[in-house]
Amino acid sequence: MIAAVKRFTNRKVLPTLGNLQLAIVLLLVIAVFSIAGTVIEQGQGQAFYQTNYPEKPALFGFLTWKVLLRAGLDHVYRTWWYLSLLMLFGASLITCTIKRQIPSLKWFSRTQKLYTNPKQFQKFALSSELPQDSIDPLITLLTENKYKIIQDGDKLYARKGIVGRIGPIVVHISMIVIMVGGIIGATTGFIAQEIIASGNTFQITNIVDAGPWAASQVPKDWAVKVNRFWINYLPTGEIDQFYSDLSVLDEAGKEVDRKTIHVNEPMRYKGITMYQADWSIAGIALKFNNSPVLNFPVGKLKIPNGRLWGTFVPIKPDGSDGVSLIVKDMQGLVLVYGMDGKLISTVRKGMSVDVKGVKITIVDVVGSTGLQIKADPGIPVVYLGFALMMISVLMSYVSHSQVWGLYEKGQLYVGGTTNRAQVTFEREFIGMLDRLSASKIPLPLDSMKETNSLV
Fold first, then answer.
1. What is the pLDDT of residues 4-34, one digit of tens each?
2. Element (H, E) at 357
């Protein structure tokens, strides 16, 4: 039974996996779904997709929010079918590397490269037959041109640029490493979003997208404190930049790291990256006459355009009378409305307003920072894969040139080939033939018959 399975694998499975056409089709399918994952917003709520991908009219006549969610197009890179495509493509690359690329490196064998019959040189596009006294002049020229030589009597094989043959294998390895990194990130990474008011401490809980094994990556032994959140505004009133002063606290509450982040300048700690992504207003700090500072939470108001936050502040103990405070940004401008809905006053942070004998002082407008938090353990692996790919591209530009020689009955037979830079190799090859034909090549003092061998 085991022998039958082995034969089936060797005759059917491995040839199919190693098929170039299959690899190309898989790569194209992966590219199509990757484009879909880029175009379609990932990790949004159902309401978002219902709004942007309605059933009537359906996008392209079929793509509705129901189809999108059922197919997993809202989290393409974490779906079982996308990961299966990556693994199948990886298996194809591994099979191709083992069955085709590695066996192509038979130049490691000393015996297979030495030709013994002059007729074998007729297969080369570049070959020649020259009258010579020995094979030693060819060895001298090849040594001058930095070839590594294998010699067995009057037969030799020489090559240089061996890394040019290894380059394609490294390309395959780099692609496999990149896919492994992608799979690690998709299965163990997560994305979270938190809205935290200035002065508050939080642990990561609001996970919006995560892989099946991401729970181990969510930190439980440290928390983050938002020391302060603020916004810099331009003279025109437009937002210039958001800032969040963050501290990482250990289980004992001790600060172990601290950084002020802003857009495009995140904080990283133990594989977790925290980005400045959004903002909100958490509350308004007030004083009634000479009372202590009281914090009133605000709610976001539903308006067609822009942002407004508001809260109701009672001025009677039973809550039967009070004012509504409206704020639109963190510049400290607060609109005060009475119970009848009419504007009473417009005040700024630090100013006061008298409402029916009660002095209300605006102490501060408390902001909330919106953080997007990501963990992707596969990123270092992906970076390694791309580094290998860049190296392999440079390796692939190196020409792998090979020359064979045979001396027999006063004739020197020479043939050569290269995998790229054909014109350069032809010039080098013809130059060596011209020197062999024109004059005797001076031999070095030591015997050239003690030939270099490959390491």
1. 545 655 566 667 777 778 888 998 999 999 9
2. none
3-state SS class at 276: strand
Q: Which residue has the tokens 């896919």?
A: 179
Signed CA dihedral, 431, 436, 440, 445: sign only: positive
387 closest CA partner among 163, 183, 89, 178:
178
Position 443 in a domain: no
- Asked if 363 and 382 sit in the same domain, the reply is no
Give me 179's structure tokens: 């896919």
Residues 327, 296 contacting (CB under 8 angstroms): no
Integer CA distances (angstroms), 353 to 87, 293, 325, in order: 67, 15, 12
Residues 186-203 have pLDDT tens digits of: 899 999 999 999 999 999
The first and second tokens of residue 191, run together, are: 């994305």
Residues recorded for the chain:
455
Rg of the Cα atoms in the chain: 37
Residue 57 preceded by cis peptide, ω within 30: yes
CA distances from 379 to 177, 179, 372, 383 (A): 11, 11, 17, 6
- Amino acid found at 428: E
Phi/psi-derived region of residue 421, left when phi > 0, alpha when psi is between -120 and 50, beta in every other case:
left
Q: Do both 267 and 412 map to the same domain?
A: no
Q: Which domain holds residue 206?
A: 187-277+370-389
Q: How many structural domains are present in the chain? A: 4
